[in-house]
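Virginiamycin B lyase
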Amino acid sequence: MRKILTAVAAAMLFTGIGHASADLPMKEYQLPAGSRPHDVAPAPDGGVWYTAQRHGALGWLDPATGKVEQIPLGSGSAPHGVIVGPDGAPWITDGGLNAIVRVDPATKKVTRYPLPAGTANANLNTAAFDGDGVLWFTGQNGIYGRLVPASGDIEVFQAPEGRGPYGITATPDGEIYYASLAGSHIARIDTKTGEATVIEPPTDEQGARRVWSDSRGKIWVSEWNSGQVSVYDPAGNSWSSWKLPGENPLAYAVYVDEHDKIWLSDFGGNALVRFDPETQNFDVQRHPRPEANVRQILGRPGEVWAPESGTDTLVMVRTGPAEAE
């Protein structure tokens, strides 16, 4: 049964102050030509995983040496998302294989978990682990699902408004939310029943693309069509929104660092953007190369990582002065 929530508090729209900032110097790591890195996931041992979408491989970068290794995932592979699971291994959403893929970080063994019959061409996108260690994933062609790693069981659900499920995130309490790009909404998944509850943002046709939780369980949303970053507060069932700086911002990726600062990629400005919710100010760092096309951002304490899918480059930004090189 479909449920729809509407904001009970009036949405607030702010215009942030954008400026180029020397506080966000990028360190660059070149990848093999044509790899087209889509997503990135820093690993516990200091390395960095990335999906080499064009090569059908999972990549590994050693930031200390710049050494890169790529692990083929199988014929027809086109990996989209990668995250590091509670087991320390990279877990991949592979649209080409229509499967969830796990790679053993020690042996490099590739294990594939195909989606059930009847769910071909799901257009798998991203994944997140809930508080019980269950992997939840999205598919743009109108599905979301879960994989129980202990048993390998996969269950797929039809999204309540059809096509669009894209970004997904877990809150500190282990709750799961996803964003629907085609549906222009976010949704909360009941991890016990699997039912998704649609939550409508205040801006129509905003193109919610990715979501990320902050330390208090607020859900931050990058809005592709509106060029806004928005936040949904489950406690008050309320929204706030801010327009990114620039003439034609296109907010693609969103990530919240350990200081609860919000990071976004702006395709329109070819820039990496940091937003401070306390001051409501933006810091903007332009990419030195045109069409960097950063589609996802992820990090670990002290570092924010972004894959430039258009330039075969990974970039890293320090998140505080104490860690500056």
